[in-house]
């Protein structure tokens, strides 16, 4: 009996240690070539646990000969010098519209091995701590979905976890590996109850893109990064086998706006019809959508409307999102304020017991970094709560 009690005690302590090590919330920032800006204030950088340099093109990794260079907007060494010593520096491969390289890589056992070998060589040569695989829409619904129908990409659904597994084998167990994955359930073609457990065997965590949840393929207004839609995203991955502690919630440091059909939206702006926003033949943008980061200049044609959105917008307690309907210009604005960001931590991250958060992207919030401050505060608050427990 005494031995059994000691065995139980040892098991309890091991479980407690594992739980404690897992309670550090991942705080991940994409650092982009569009806005390669890092805050000077060390208090803003210090909470960041991981940085993903975005992007390196996927086609680079399909060449059979060894590469002499790995082109990216900022070297890993330079990035490492801009952050605190413990920060993990990763390289993000791919991105929106970059599908061709992954398509080539995933097709055969041989092509997967070539791609994986080159990824491992890049990590070794650059000194990166790991990679983030941004094949954002395997199985279809990517930028080219009108030109290449989803039926022609169905094979990618089974090939995607095979490619990830090959990359993991090439990297070994000591390097980090993550994937950026769709936030809208209609786009989760490759993330089924059969494939998600296979996918998670290769990854340290998933970056669920819980933003752009309204885009030009929609026909009614909604929050592009709202609480309820984000919960729908997270629940979909968890239902198909992704552990909560391996899921990171995505935050958008930028605005979105959409032109709706007119003043008929005034009474019920949320859920208002927008009409067609993309070309039904080509999938091209019909010019009814737009957006910009907090670092960008506001486009002249919507500047006055945006000022009203900042001044007169409101928070939707039901759907969980900040919005403004400009009746004069028939514009629907949807974006996160610092206050809206703060609400997501208890409502999503804490409630769902997620393992981390990430934002696109760090420099997009310059120069004020007001959204980053709210983001860091949310992370620190949850870490403090866990320490107190």
Automatic annotation (TrEMBL):
SUPFAM superfamilies: (Trans)glycosidases. Keywords: Signal. GO terms for molecular function: chitin binding; endochitinase activity. Gene3D superfamilies: Glycosidases. It holds the Pfam family Glyco_hydro_18. Residues 1-22 form the signal peptide. Residues 25-382 form the GH18 domain. InterPro entries: Chitinase_II/V-like_cat (IPR011583), GH (IPR017853), Glyco_hydro18_cat (IPR001223), Glycosyl_Hydrlase_18 (IPR050314). It is an enzyme of class 3 (hydrolase). The keyword Secreted does not apply. GO terms for biological process: carbohydrate metabolic process; chitin catabolic process. GO terms for cellular component: extracellular region. Its EC number is 3.2.1.14. The keyword Signal applies. PANTHER family: CHITINASE. This is chitinase. It comes from Xylaria hypoxylon. The lineage of its organism: Eukaryota, Fungi, Dikarya, Ascomycota, Pezizomycotina.
């Amino acid at each position: 009996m005494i031995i059994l009690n000691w065995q139980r005690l040892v098991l309890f302590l091991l479980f407690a240690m594992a739980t404690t090590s897992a309670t550090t919330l991942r705080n991940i920032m994409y650092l982009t070539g569009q806005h390669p800006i890092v805050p000077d204030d060390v208090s803003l950088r210090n909470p960041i646990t991981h940085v993903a340099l975005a992007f390196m093109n996927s086609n680079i990794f399909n060449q059979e000969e060894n590469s002499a260079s790995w082109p990216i907007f900022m070297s890993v060494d330079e990035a490492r010098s801009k952050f605190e010593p413990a920060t993990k520096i990763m390289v993000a491969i791919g991105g929106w519209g970059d599908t061709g390289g992954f398509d080539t890589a995933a097709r055969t056992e041989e092509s997967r091995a070539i791609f994986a070998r080159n990824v491992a060589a890049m990590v070794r040569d650059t000194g990166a701590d790991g990679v983030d695989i941004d094949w954002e829409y395997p199985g279809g619904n990517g930028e080219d979905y009108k030109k290449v129908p989803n039926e022609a990409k169905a094979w990618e659904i089974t090939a995607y976890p095979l490619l990830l597994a090959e990359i993991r084998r090439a990297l070994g167990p000591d390097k980090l590996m993550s994937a950026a994955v769709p936030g809208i359930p209609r786009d989760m073609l490759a993330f089924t109850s059969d494939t998600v457990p296979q996918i998670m065997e290769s990854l340290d965590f998933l970056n669920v893109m819980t933003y752009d949840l309204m885009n030009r393929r929609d026909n009614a207004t909604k929050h592009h990064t709202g609480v309820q839609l984000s919960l729908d995203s997270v629940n979909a991955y968890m239902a198909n086998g992704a552990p909560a502690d391996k899921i990171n919630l995505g935050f958008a440091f930028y605005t979105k706006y959409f032109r709706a059909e007119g003043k008929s939206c005034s009474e019920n702006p949320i859920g208002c019809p927008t009409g067609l926003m993309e070309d039904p033949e080509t999938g091209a943008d019909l010019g009814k959508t737009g957006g910009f980061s907090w670092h960008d200049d506001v486009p002249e044609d919507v500047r006055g409307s945006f000022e009203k959105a900042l001044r007169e917008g409101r928070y939707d307690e039901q759907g969980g999102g900040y919005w403004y309907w400009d009746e004069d210009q028939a514009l629907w604005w949807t974006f996160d304020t610092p206050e809206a960001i703060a609400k997501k931590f208890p409502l999503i991250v804490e409630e769902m017991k997620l393992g981390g958060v990430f934002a696109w992207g760090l420099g997009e919030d310059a120069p004020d970094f007001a959204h980053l401050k709210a983001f860091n505060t949310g992370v620190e608050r949850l870490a403090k709560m866990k320490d107190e427990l």
